[in-house]
Write a structure and sequence with these properties.
globular; alpha+beta; seven-stranded antiparallel sheet; two-stranded antiparallel ribbon; 17% helix
Length: 172
């Protein structure tokens, strides 16, 4: 039986990668402890740079050789709040980039609120902060964004406790 796809509107971002490994009962409490919410997360991805290498005497194809792997920046967007957390992390990086590295995780929640998938990022730096665009004639939420440059993503496989809880809550 194939599980249903996860909805993309329920997610958490945490600057503690250990949150992605919590047992299901504790993971259900994460939204209550979150310092802030995000409207949008983009940039979960990476690319493998390859180069073509033609071999003499072989005219039907060109070898594709891997060079290096690069990671997209993770972009977090949220409504401006009075909590200075993102701004403080960005400011810390201006003074001491090595000390401002943080690991974290992006966790996608299932319809039951149990984490269904997660990706941990490693060695993240708050590389770019953008304040809101302000328009007096519009009635919209002021949005700030933060770009995280990082050194890699790891897909976190959900533990058996989360799977067991999901089966208990949704027997088929």
């Amino acid at each position: 039986m194939t599980p249903d796809p996860l909805p993309k509107y329920r997610f958490l971002v945490t600057l503690d990668p250990g949150d992605a490994y919590l047992p299901a009962a504790q993971a259900l409490l994460l939204p209550l402890a979150a310092a802030g919410g995000f409207q949008e997360v983009t940039g979960l991805g990476g690319q493998l740079e390859v180069t073509g290498w033609p071999e003499g005497g072989r005219n039907d194809s060109v070898h594709q050789l891997p060079l290096r792997h690069t990671w997209n920046r993770i972009v977090l967007k949220r409504g401006v709040v009075r909590d200075p957390g993102l701004w403080s992390w960005y400011r810390a990086g201006l003074a001491d980039a090595i000390g401002a590295r943080r690991d974290g995780a992006v966790i996608v929640l299932g319809p039951d609120g149990v984490p269904g998938a997660a990706w941990a990022f490693h060695g993240g730096l708050a590389a770019k902060w953008s304040g809101p665009d302000l328009h007096a004639e519009q009635n919209a939420v002021a949005v700030e964004s933060l770009e995280i440059a990082h050194e890699g993503l790891t897909e976190v496989l959900r533990d058996t406790a989360a799977t067991a809880l999901r089966q208990i809550n949704n027997p088929r």
